[in-house]
Design brief:
Number of strands: 0
Shape: elongated
Largest sheet: none
Distance between the termini: 41 Å
Structural class: mainly alpha
């Protein structure tokens, strides 16, 4: 539980959610019941050595941030 609490405290705030629509703020302010459920979930994943296919998928959206750079040049 200590490791989970430390990880939840270090989550960045004001970030977009993933395809599950869960914000970091949901986990940060979710209370003890959310932490217990997360702990059960992660322990189950570790014990069964099985990871959902959805957890292996990410959404990457490149955002142009350079004023003096070509947009086509990554």
């Amino acid at each position: 539980m200590h490791e989970l609490e430390r990880a939840v405290r270090s989550l960045p705030r004001k970030k977009s959610p993933g395809h599950d629509y869960i914000l970091n703020e949901h986990l940060i302010h979710g209370g003890e019941s959310v932490k217990r459920l997360l702990l059960l979930l992660f322990n189950s994943v570790a014990q069964n050595a099985y990871v959902q296919d959805d957890w292996q998928t990410s959404i990457i959206i490149p955002i142009y941030k350079g004023k003096d750079r070509e947009k086509a040049d990554p």
